[in-house]
Amino acid sequence: MSAAPDQKATAPKLKRTLGLGLLVLYGLGVTIGAGIYVLVGITAGRAGIYAPTAFLVAAVVMAFSAASFAEFAGRFPVSAGEATYVREGFRSEKMALIVGLVVIIEATIAGATIGLGSVGYLHSFIQLPAWLLIALVIILMGLIAAVGTLQSVAFAAILTVIEVAGLLAIIAGGFFGDHDIFARLPTVVPSSFEWSVWSGVLGASILAFFAFIGFEDMVNVAEETKQPRRVLPIAIFITLGLVTVFYFLVSAIAVLSVPVAELAQSQAPLGLVFGAVTSLPSSAIIMIAIVATLNGVIIQIIMASRVIYGLADKGNLPRFLGPRFLGQVHPRTRTPVVATALVTLIMLMFAIGFDLEFLAEFTSRMTLVVFALVNLALVWLKLGGRAPSHEHFSVPIWVPVIGFVLSLAALLPAPV
């Protein structure tokens, strides 16, 4: 009986291998993917030429929550970050468990969305049934995620560099290929408050919000990050800022270069845009889009498995979920292999069983629920007088209050 504590003390733990550079690339990798490479077409279908404004609206909602996450990451740099933040804010283990489970569901379905989104691009090269392509993508990424955190994140970082290069190519092609496009940029932002225009923008923003999901994933590799109290807040803001610039410019070039109706109906929308603004074959951007979606899948698997590990390792999972197994780290790979396998299996089931738009909107709404609770937890924490040390990043109390209100507002049904 007395051996249990010793066994707990000697069990392998996660290894700190990630610095600021890899962490930002990790954040960019999980954020830049299906959100822009796939959903830009669907977003344009809802908001028309004002799709870039929908991305800006989503970025504003994200910004306040990002600031709350940055403070929490400095206070509590642990895996299963959101669950920890809610537990500390509300002093409730049940609330922490609920949030942890919602985060797992959100990340798993996000990975399924990205995996499903890869099919439109993969079909340009591989003529296999959609379900088989999805299975190959998700299972292969699950295997890579199980190999090791440094290896899988480094692999994801390489893919991130490639997919960012694809977006930069579109931006460069748009501006150098059409010298008037810069002058036309203001037309993608509504010049009035006409409801028929803004209803489309707000309806599209829930999908655009999916494109920004990613910065919160960084807090769940806190136990594998060097100097997390200092590095995590910086990485969160760098990631969000870069992504906002990329998304606005790429979506603006998309709606200004390709007919909106054609863009909305395409399963490979950036392939159309790339062909319209560059003289290069569209196969180049299609290959990059495939890379982007593969990258998104692997990072969502890493994220969800770390949340499961964090909850199980601290004994917060219900008994029927088998916490002893899910909280184990493989002694050779130093990764939560069982949790990784479980996430991969569930992700595959969702990707095969549901359509892209439903999965994307469901993921966005689950994420907004988590954001609302995390913001409210920080308000409660501050009202309770639990001030951070001078070493930690801190925000005024009105920041999480606004973050909470905006998250709830974004959860409202899309206007018609």
Can you characterise this structure?
The chain has 416 residues and is mainly α. It has one domain (18-385, 397-410): Amino acid/polyamine transporter I (Up-down Bundle), CATH 1.20.1740.10. It is built from 20 helices and no strands. The radius of gyration is 21 Å and the shape is globular. Residues 1-9 have low confidence and may be disordered.
Helix content percent band: over 70%
**Structurally, how many domains make up the residues?**
1
**What's the β-strand tally?**
0
How many alpha or pi helices? 20
Looking at the structure, the CATH topology is Amino acid/polyamine transporter I
The parts where pLDDT drops under 50 for at least 5 residues are 1-9
Strand percentage, roughly? under 5%
Judging by the overall fold, what is the CATH architecture? Up-down Bundle
What is the level 1 CATH name? Answer: Mainly Alpha
Structural class: mainly alpha
The backbone outline, from C-alpha atoms, is globular
* Rg on CA atoms, Å: 21 Å
Largest β-sheet summary: none
Mean pLDDT: 82
Please specify the SSE layout and strand pairing.
Blueprint: H1 3-10, H2 20-31, H3 34-37, H4 39-47, H5 51-75, H6 81-90, H7 93-122, H8 130-147, H9 149-177, H10 181-184, H11 195-212, H12 215-218, H13 228-257, H14 260-265, H15 269-277, H16 282-313, H17 323-326, H18 337-353, H19 356-383, H20 398-410
Helix pairs in contact: 2-9, 2-13, 2-16, 4-11, 5-11, 5-13, 5-19, 5-20, 6-7, 6-19, 7-8, 7-16, 7-18, 7-19, 8-9, 8-16, 8-18, 9-13, 9-15, 9-16, 11-19, 15-16, 16-18, 19-20
